[in-house]
Amino acid sequence: MKLSLSVRVAEAACKTKLNIPFEELVHLAREMGYHAICMRASAGGLLTPRDELEKMRRIVEDEDLIVSMVTADSDVPLNNEQGPNSLQNIGPSLDVAEALGCDLIRVCLKTEEDIDHSRRAADLAGERGIRLAHQCHIETLFEQVDRSIEVLEQIGRKNFGLIYEPANLLMCDEPYGAEVLEKFKPWLMNVYVQNHRLDPEGPDVLGTWCQGPVRFHHIPIWDAGGVEFNQVIEGLQHINYDGYFTVHQAYAWLMGPREAAAESIRYLRSFGCFDR
Fold it and tell me: What keywords are assigned to this protein (predicted)?
């Protein structure tokens, strides 16, 4: 498996801008030993001029990295009602991915109507050699394991797949170990990791469709009491996953991006299964 660092580790709480310059974050990723950068619109996306995106690609490639995935607009990670809109006009997102030299785009589905839009978007993406993927995510059609598989089968496109993310499954009281990864294997295109510790008295709360409001603590991925990362790693090894494993934690509330990047890779490398 190859380690990717999401720009989210340096993202402001609003999810629409970075707290440090993009070039600094890319250099940090290379210094720490990551293989790729996971791009979000907070760094560069639909509102970024093409020449600026191409410049960002050169910054990444000059550090001998690649862009592992693109989230081209801020509505997707905000998971708001506008999140699925890009599926109805996927062309601009495809342009962003091409400018950044990336063949994978994260998208959002929230209604049954979005399934039809996903088929058409995937067909257009396929013409340009690009894949689309949806994260395991609360308040979407990919909130629970079985429903996620149903939707993937309904979409029925080889270039439409899944971003496995165990913390969101944990929030929904869903399993996320080897048995689940075996089910997800045919569609698995990326892995995101972040960490939450569930607590009925926790300071943070997010809504889910299947469990209602869920209270929790944001915690670093190396802290105990949240996602059991030994289960995650063992499950990925069980299915021989060899793609990108992306540090996706929102660290704005916890620590700066340098400490976050360094401690995350130190912890993950302790499992002994990541390329160097």
Answer: Isomerase
- The domain 2-269 is placed in CATH, from the list 2.60.40.60, 3.40.50.10170, 3.20.20.150, 3.40.30.10, at 3.20.20.150
Q: Is a pLDDT exceeding 80 seen at residue 236?
A: yes
Q: Which amino acid is at 178?
A: A
pLDDT recorded at residue 81: 96
3-state helix, strand, coil in the chain (%, to 5): 40, 20, 40
- In this structure, what token pair is assigned to residue 265? 């890779």
The domains of the chain are located at 2-269
**HSE of 119, CA atoms in CB hemisphere, 13 A:** 9
Q: Which residues are 205's β-sheet partners?
A: 215
Contact 236, 181 (CB under 8 A): yes
The model's pTM: 0.96
Short-list 171, 159, 173, CA closest to 104: 159
Q: Vertex 84, ends 40 and 79: CA angle to 5°?
A: 60
pLDDT per residue as tens digits for the range 9-43: 998 877 788 889 999 999 999 999 999 999 999 99
Residue whose C-alpha is closest to residue 236's, from 261, 268, 260, 262: 268
